[in-house]
Automatic annotation (TrEMBL):
The keyword Metal-binding does not apply. It is found in: Cell membrane. This is Chromate transport protein ChrA. It comes from Nonomuraea africana. The keyword Hydrolase does not apply. Belongs to the chromate ion transporter (CHR) (TC 2.A.51) family. Keywords: Cell membrane, Membrane, Transmembrane, Transmembrane helix. The lineage of its organism: Bacteria, Bacillati, Actinomycetota, Actinomycetes, Streptosporangiales.
Length: 88
Protein backbone atom coordinates (compact mmCIF):
# COMPACT_ATOMS: atom_id res chain seq x y z
CA UNK A 1 0.00 0.00 0.00
CA UNK A 2 1.22 3.48 -0.90
CA UNK A 3 1.20 6.17 1.82
CA UNK A 4 -2.10 8.02 1.41
CA UNK A 5 -0.62 11.54 1.36
CA UNK A 6 1.85 10.51 -1.31
CA UNK A 7 -0.98 9.03 -3.39
CA UNK A 8 -3.09 12.20 -3.03
CA UNK A 9 -0.15 14.30 -4.24
CA UNK A 10 0.36 11.93 -7.18
CA UNK A 11 -3.31 12.13 -8.24
CA UNK A 12 -3.22 15.91 -7.92
CA UNK A 13 -0.08 15.99 -10.08
CA UNK A 14 -1.75 13.77 -12.66
CA UNK A 15 -4.76 16.09 -12.73
CA UNK A 16 -2.53 19.07 -13.51
CA UNK A 17 -0.88 17.27 -16.43
CA UNK A 18 -3.94 15.83 -18.15
CA UNK A 19 -5.25 17.19 -21.42
CA UNK A 20 -6.54 15.78 -24.66
CA UNK A 21 -9.51 13.84 -23.33
CA UNK A 22 -9.51 10.24 -22.12
CA UNK A 23 -6.58 9.12 -24.27
CA UNK A 24 -4.36 11.85 -22.83
CA UNK A 25 -5.54 11.18 -19.28
CA UNK A 26 -4.83 7.47 -19.59
CA UNK A 27 -1.40 8.15 -21.10
CA UNK A 28 -0.47 10.43 -18.18
CA UNK A 29 -1.68 7.83 -15.65
CA UNK A 30 0.33 5.12 -17.41
CA UNK A 31 3.49 7.21 -17.51
CA UNK A 32 3.20 8.41 -13.92
CA UNK A 33 1.93 5.30 -12.14
CA UNK A 34 3.59 2.55 -14.21
CA UNK A 35 6.81 3.99 -15.57
CA UNK A 36 7.86 6.69 -13.11
CA UNK A 37 6.52 5.56 -9.73
CA UNK A 38 6.19 1.82 -10.48
CA UNK A 39 3.12 1.58 -8.24
CA UNK A 40 1.35 -0.78 -10.63
CA UNK A 41 2.76 -3.13 -13.25
CA UNK A 42 2.25 -2.61 -16.97
CA UNK A 43 0.38 -5.89 -17.36
CA UNK A 44 -2.07 -5.09 -14.55
CA UNK A 45 -2.55 -1.57 -15.90
CA UNK A 46 -3.33 -2.92 -19.38
CA UNK A 47 -5.68 -5.55 -17.99
CA UNK A 48 -7.58 -2.91 -15.98
CA UNK A 49 -7.70 -0.56 -18.98
CA UNK A 50 -9.09 -3.31 -21.22
CA UNK A 51 -11.77 -4.10 -18.66
CA UNK A 52 -12.69 -0.40 -18.30
CA UNK A 53 -13.01 -0.09 -22.07
CA UNK A 54 -15.70 -2.78 -22.02
CA UNK A 55 -17.76 -1.00 -19.37
CA UNK A 56 -20.14 1.80 -20.26
CA UNK A 57 -19.07 5.24 -19.08
CA UNK A 58 -15.83 7.22 -18.90
CA UNK A 59 -12.98 4.73 -19.02
CA UNK A 60 -10.32 7.16 -17.76
CA UNK A 61 -12.30 7.86 -14.60
CA UNK A 62 -13.08 4.18 -14.09
CA UNK A 63 -9.40 3.33 -14.47
CA UNK A 64 -8.39 6.06 -12.01
CA UNK A 65 -10.93 4.84 -9.46
CA UNK A 66 -9.76 1.24 -9.80
CA UNK A 67 -6.07 2.10 -9.44
CA UNK A 68 -6.83 4.46 -6.55
CA UNK A 69 -8.78 1.67 -4.85
CA UNK A 70 -6.02 -0.82 -5.56
CA UNK A 71 -3.39 1.43 -3.99
CA UNK A 72 -5.33 2.81 -1.00
CA UNK A 73 -8.67 1.08 -0.66
CA UNK A 74 -11.99 2.92 -0.71
CA UNK A 75 -10.63 6.33 0.19
CA UNK A 76 -7.98 6.00 -2.54
CA UNK A 77 -10.67 5.25 -5.10
CA UNK A 78 -12.68 8.25 -3.93
CA UNK A 79 -9.69 10.59 -4.17
CA UNK A 80 -8.70 9.32 -7.62
CA UNK A 81 -12.28 9.45 -8.88
CA UNK A 82 -12.93 12.97 -7.61
CA UNK A 83 -10.31 14.52 -9.85
CA UNK A 84 -11.86 17.60 -11.49
CA UNK A 85 -10.17 16.97 -14.85
CA UNK A 86 -11.68 13.52 -15.36
CA UNK A 87 -15.08 13.56 -17.06
CA UNK A 88 -18.12 12.67 -14.98
Amino acid sequence: MIPFRQAVRAWFGISLQTFGGPAGQIAVMQRTLVEERRWIGQQRFNHALNYCMLLPGPEAQQLAIYIGWLLNGTRGGLVAGRDPHFPR
